[in-house]
TrEMBL record:
PANTHER family: TRANSCRIPTIONAL REGULATORY PROTEIN. Residues 298-326 are annotated as: Disordered. SUPFAM superfamilies: Homeodomain-like, P-loop containing nucleoside triphosphate hydrolases. This is Sigma-54-dependent Fis family transcriptional regulator. Keywords: ATP-binding, Nucleotide-binding, Transcription, Transcription regulation. The lineage of its organism: Bacteria, Pseudomonadati, Pseudomonadota, Gammaproteobacteria, Pseudomonadales. Residues 338-550 form the Sigma-54 factor interaction domain.
Amino acid sequence: MNVPIPADHRRAQAREAFFERGQIPTGLIDDAIVHSWQRCSAASKSVSEQVQFDTLSRAGLVELMDSNRILLEAASQPLEQLGQTVNGAGYSVLLTDSQGVALAARRSGRCANTLINGAFRQGVNLSEATIGTSAMSCAVSERRPVLVSGVEHYLHANRVFNCAASPIVDPMGRVLGAIDITRGNALEPGSALSLVQQCSARIERQLMGMLSPWLMLSLGWEAGDRSAPGDLLVALGPDGQVLGLSPRVRELTGLAGTDATMGFQDLFDLPFEALVDSFRSRHQPITARMHSGLSFSLRPAETGGRKPARPVAVSQPCRRSPESADFGDAALGRQVPVAIRALDKGLPVLLLGETGTGKEVMATALHKGSALASGNLVAINCAAIPETLIEGELFGHADGAYTGARRGGAPGKIEQADGGTLFLDEIGDMPLALQSRLLRVLETRELTRLGSVAPKQVRFQLICATHRDLSVAARNGEFRDDLLYRIKGMTLRLPRLAERSDLASFIVDRCRELTQGSRQLSAVCLERLADYDWPGNVRELVFALRHADAFAEPGEVLELGHFPEEIAAPRTAAARSRRTTGEGGTLDLVERAVIDEALALEGGNVSRAAKRLGIGRATLYRRLKAAGQSSH
Ligand SMILES: Nc1ncnc2c1ncn2[C@@H]1O[C@H](COP(=O)(O)OP(=O)(O)OP(=O)(O)O)[C@@H](O)[C@H]1O
C-alpha cells in the first residue's frame, strides 16, 4: 500500500534533492517553486542571504502609487474584505505590483511575527530578485495561484512564511500584480488558495467594470437566453477592436490576452458591421460562433441599473472617479456657483492650477451642477494622446475615411459630448494645427468628421484645464491667442493645497473620507500636516493619508510616524515662520479643526467634546467664542 508522504517530508526531500544533490525534484513540490529556485540559483543568489525589507523612497512611493492607481482602485474593496475575513485566522494580506513591490498591506492584529510585520508594509520590495522565492513571484511568473510554505522559500530566513498568492490579470491579459495572504502557522491549503483566488477574481471583475468601451458585449450560452451569466464580457472599440476580455472569456477562448491588433472577427465568425446593424435595427441578441465552434448569443451588456450599452457614443466620463469633492475654501467655494452659471449661459470655463489641485474633480462637479448634467461628460487629455491620433479622437471619422475604417464611420469625442460637456484637460499641450480646427468648431458649433465634407451641428458646453500659463504660451507662439479668448469665458484658479484657507479641516475631512471614519489624526500630526508645503497638492495628501492608514495598526490614531518621511521630518525655521505668521495662522486653523472634529464626533455635545479633548467645558466655550470672533 502506498502511504502518502507528509507535506513537510516532501518539502524537505525536494530541498535536499535540489540544493544538495543538484537534482530537479519532480512530483514532490509545485513546479512553480522549482522554476523559481532555478531562477534564483541561476542568478547566484545565496540561500543564507539576510533580507532587509527596505521601503522605497518617498518619491518612489508616490510614483508607485500613481502608476498603479487603477489596480489600487480596483483592489481597494476586495482587499479590505479579504483582510476582514482572514484577520481572525492570523493571516496578513498583501497586494503587490507585477514586480513584487508591496502596494498595500493589511497586517493581522494577531500576527506577532516581526519578520512578517516588517515585510508587510507599503513600498517594500518583495521581488524574487530581492527576497527569493515567494508565493507572489511564483503566481506572477506562472499566471496561476500558488502556495509556498516554510522551506519551499529559497532563503532560509524566509522559512517562517506560509503564503498563498493569486495573480491579478487585467482585461488585456497583462499581469498587474498579485494578492497574497501569509501567516506564521501552517496554511490550510484549500481554503488559503480559494481565498486568494476569489479575491483576485473580484479585482479582475472590477477592472473589467472600470472600462468604458464603445460597446460592452455580453455572451449568453444559448440564442434567445436572456439570462446571460454576466461574467462573459468582451469590450469593443468603435472599429470592433477588442479592448478587453473578462477572465471567463479568456478561459473559453484559450487566449492569454489581447493586443491592439485583435478585432471582433478574430473571435467570432461574424462581421462586426453585422453585429452593430443587428443591434441597431432589431435590438435583439444575435447568435455567433467562435472560431473554436462554440455558439453564443451576443447582446449589449446590461450595465447595472443603467440602460444597456448601445453601439452609439458611449462616453468615457472621467479618467478616474474622484473622492467626493469638497470646495470648502472660501474663495473657491464662492466661485463654483458662478462658474456653473457661466456654463449655463454658454460661456466656457478655464480651470488653472498646478498638478493635483483637483482640476478634474472640479470639472466633474461643474458638469454635475450644470443644466446639461444629464448629458455625457467627455474628458480628453490632450497631453496623453499622440499627435497623430488626437484629430481622429476629437473629430471622429467618416465612412471609408481610411483603409480599415469602420462602415458608417465613428463619432469623435466632440460629437459624443453633444448635449453634455466636453472637458479638454491639458489644453495647453494641444498641437497648433488642431487648435485651429477646434477654434472653428467653437465658432461655428459645427464639426466635420475626418474624411467627410458634411458638417454636423453640435451643442456642448466646454471646460478646459491646464497647469501652463497660456498667455505666455500665446506670446511664444505655442498657443493661438484667438483660441485663448474663446476658451476663457470664466477662469477659475484652483489654489495650491498649502494655500487653502480651510487646510486643516480639509485634511480632517479627507482623512475621515478615505478611512471611512475609522481614523483620527493626533493634534500634533494635524498641526504638522497643516504646516507642510504639499508640492503634489491634494493628490499628495490623498497618498499620504493612504500611506498612514496602511502603516498604522487597526484603530490606532494617526501619528506623524505613520506618514511618509518627508512630511514627518522636522520643519525648518523658515518654513515655520512662513506658515505661522499672519492672521488665522496654522495653529488657529488646527485648533478649530480639532474642535470641530470633536464636536462632530460627539454629535455637537459640548461637554462630551470637551471631555474628548481633555479640556474643561468653559475652556471649550471660550475657544469656540475666540474662533468665532477671529473668523468674522
Ligand atoms: N476637492 C477635492 N476633494 C476631494 N478629493 C480631491 C479634491 N481635489 C482633488 N482631489 C483628489 O486629488 C487627486 C488629484 O485630483 P485631480 O486629478 O482632479 O487633479 P488635477 O489638477 O486634474 O491633476 P493633473 O493636473 O495632474 O491631472 C484625485 O485623487 C482626487 O480625487
